[in-house]
Amino acid sequence: MTADETVVETAVAAPAARVWRALRDPTLIRRWHGWEYDDEHGLDEEIRQIFVDGVVEDAAAMVLTVHGGDRFTVTPGAEGAVVRIVRAAKGSNPEWDDWYDDVTEGWTSFLQQLKFGLERHDLAERCTLYLDGPTGGATVMELLGVAGVTGPPGSAYTALVSTGDALSGTVWFRSPKQLGLTVDQLGPGLLVLAIQPENAQRPGGGAQMILSAYGRGAEEFAALSDRWTNWWNARDQAAGCC
């Protein structure tokens, strides 16, 4: 690694071959990457564009270079594997430079979702909810009501959040702009809260939430999604954000 490289990595308590397969099988990728959404293309098309089209793969070395130049490596470790992403240098794709930090933060979230999905659920099917938008100067942790969760990874928390839900679990990870919480009530699930970086298109920055739930029925998760989405939209309207 050189001084100007941007690296995102995490250790995963799973065999390296299993982790590599999770990066190469689109059916498994959708169980940790991103979130489900409805539009002309959806998550499956996003996965094809990122992990299938135009990639350079060295399966023997477990190295994958995706479109745009970001390079994944999976290395066997003492307790499983280490997944490392070395980002293409900023400036190699000027059209995406304004979103460079967003992509880095996105990979941080998604590697943690990969780790959680493998370690806690062996990449079982999940349900996902995504919310984002401006914050009016507050952090996403403050908006949801978990700013008081200040413990290190592995520490327990309980919180009555702004949606009206009582959540409990442990701190899954922390980074300078993100907080990941396990949610016992959802399987357990994983809640990733991220402060979106400022850029030319988003001068005030923003907030992002990705909620992954396991073992929930469609009606139960739909009710939760509606409750959280209604809270988020009402907050936006009250703040004059939309």
Automatic annotation (TrEMBL):
InterPro entries: START-like_dom_sf. SUPFAM superfamilies: Bet v1-like. This is SRPBCC domain-containing protein. It comes from Rhodococcus spelaei.
